[in-house]
Amino acid sequence: MKKSLSLLLGASLLFIMTGCDKKEETQESKMTYKLSTAEVYEQMCAKCHGKNAEGNTEKKGPALNDQTIQELRLGITDIKMGGSGGHSSGTEHEVMEHNMKKIIEKGMDYDTDAMAQYIHDNFNKK
Amino acid sequence: MDKKLFKENLEQIDAYLKQEGISRRDAMKMMGLGGAAMMMGSGIATEAKAASSNAKGKILIVGGGLSGVATAALLMRTLENPDITILEPNPKSVSYQSGQTLVGGGVWTNSDIEYMTADFMPDGVKWIQEKAVEFDPEKNTVKTDKGQTIPYDYMIVAAGLKLDFARLEGLGITESITSRGDSSAVKKIIGQNGLCSIYFGDGATDTWTQMQKFVADAKSGKKVKGIFTDPDTPIKCGGAPKKIMYLTDARLREAGARENAELTLYPNGGKLFGVPEYNDAMVKQFATRDMKYNYNHNLISVDPAAKIATFKKHWLEKGEWDDVLEEYEMVPASEKVEVPYDFMHITPPQMAPEEIASSPIGSDKGWVPVTQETLQHVKYPNVFAVGDVAALPMGKTGGSARKQYRVLVENLVAVMEGKKELPAKYDGYTVCPLITSLGTVMLAEFNWTGKPAPSFPLDPTQERWIWWLLKVYALKPMTQYGMLSGRA
Ligand SMILES: Cc1cc2nc3c(=O)[nH]c(=O)nc-3n(C[C@H](O)[C@H](O)[C@H](O)COP(=O)(O)OP(=O)(O)OC[C@H]3O[C@@H](n4cnc5c(N)ncnc54)[C@H](O)[C@@H]3O)c2cc1C
Q1: What tens digit of pLDDT does each residue of B429-484 get?
Q2: pLDDT tens over chain A, length 126 residues
Q3: Among the listed ranges A104-108, B228-232, B347-351, B412-416, which one has the minimum average pLDDT value?
């Protein structure tokens, strides 16, 4: 191993690591959605979780009006990501994961946090 | 150096190393240099930010593992009049858990990763070697297993998680354990007779023993089966169940015995990785190595004598027509599947420590509920949580804790100063150095956007030599000397 090469690597690492804390300006395209959060809720979620998120036993959709904002965010992110490990453990929301895929396929994608906020602000019991 | 040039440079180094190979000694020297540079690099960045504050208050940290000690160290450097107590029963709590994978694969031994807490406890922190057993967040007190009641003004919960082998039938295990604590309840079964787990310290050492037997059997011409599990709970280091499989594959190849072994992953979920880019890369890596997978299998029981694992295999069945989705409704269905093995690596179900889960600061699912960006408890503004115990989407890793503890300190200091706005936000960053062979790693970095979030200007889905060097030589010093002292 040539000395110059090892120096180069050392120097490179120094460079990247110091640069590491700086926020990279990522070319993150802002997602745009066809429908508003409220529209998606009314047209989809409401049918199975109730007009006021009170749940719908016939559709087996549990109530969502008793969850804290943080629980809703976690639950919905989990469902959209297919598991909270970001890996192969999966979730306990197999049915809803499937529904979510279908809802997105129908062109009714939405922002996770906005949906959690919407459900919480409009329907939370407390 | 401009970005493009730098990127080309890195590509070249990586290609050169792959082609030429590199001796262990050279690598050590090189990464010693790089590792030190790295710590300095991030150390400078942090030090500049660690603004001092004269806010006062009694801070109690529950759990003195990686996150607890790192948080304490940074608080010590930030506060002018720190009053910090850590509750931690385990004298070796700061041992390097990420290294257990390499111990299991025979690259390291336990002595490479075992560290004494006393050597890393920041000066001035009061360490009580007891366990918290009762929480009264209305009165701001915690009770310990030895009967002390400890009052606090601010509390940080950094208690990690527990391994719940007891949930698996047939093992005769009734207690949960931690990764670095007493494992006597588990190791008499796990670590014997082809059954193993890198998730606890002794288990990692025993995994290497069992793996060597497995490789030897394959080498002797016997047709053998190795299986690897991934449970239905959140787990720490979501990559580990697969890393140990890649290492088994590598050891079999090294012995020239790969064709006699069948290796299969049985994960509870329906993909290898949640981020599509990394998932696609892994599917290809599995294919080239002839590693198999059967999705939607959750391990529920084991017959260790007969060497048979029983999984709950689950799927969705077509139900009635649903006019909302304009699709057939899906109904969950399942059956039990028995799989014989010669070698099985178990990733156990994992949960928040029982005493925390069932306390007022816990939640239905156990994990401590915090606002995911600020790490502040959803009900008690003077309580924060960090690391594996926190209810956060995605990564329970040391890599995410490394981002979290700085956010926590900034926000806690703001609360102590009576500020309304919490200044710092965590974006869900997590990192998984996915070991794909003896000598290559895919550095999977991502965050809550569900997209790769690479810190380096290189294609993040490639397996690379230099990330192997990073993993094997640089991350440990960076964690043990950088992070545990609150500097990196
Ligand atoms: C096999 C394996 C591989 C891994 N690989 C990686 C990797 O490659 N990269 C990566 O970034 N991370 C990896 N990790 C994960 C990483 O080790 C953890 O995420 C990290 O240790 C979390 O830190 P923590 O402080 O939250 O928990 P811990 O470090 O586990 O510390 C928690 C501490 O709390 C204490 N405690 C618990 N209950 C109480 C109580 N009631 N009172 C007082 N104290 C209590 C425990 O004794 C423990 O010491 C791996 C982990 C394992 C097991």
Answers
A1: 999 999 999 999 999 999 888 889 998 889 999 999 999 999 998 999 999 999 99
A2: 444 455 445 545 544 444 444 344 344 446 789 899 999 999 999 999 999 999 999 989 999 999 999 999 989 988 887 766 667 787 788 899 999 989 999 999 999 999 999 999 999 987
A3: A104-108
Nearest to A90 among B38, B232, B430 (CB): B232
Please tell me the distance from the alpha carbon of residue B480 to that of residue B488, in angstroms, as a whole number. 10
Q: Is B314 on the interface with A (CB under 8 A)?
A: yes
List all residues 6 or more positions away from B314 whose beta carbon is below 8 Å from its beta carbon.
A94, B296, B298, B332, B333, B334
Domain at A33-123, CATH class: mainly alpha
The C-alpha atoms of residue B155 and residue B83 are separated, in whole angstroms, by 12
Which member of B37, B265, B332 has the closest CB to residue A14? B37
Residues of A in contact with B314 (CB under 8 A): 94
Stated pTM of the model: 0.91
ipTM of model: 0.79
Reply yes or no on whether B196 is catalytic.
no
3-state class of A61 per DSSP?
strand
For the stretch B311-357, pLDDT in tens is 999 999 999 898 888 888 889 999 999 999 999 999 999 999 999 99
Look at residue A14 in the predicted model and tell me its pLDDT.
45
Whether B104 contacts chain A with CB within 8 A:
no
Nearest to B107 by CA among B484, B469, B479, B481: B469
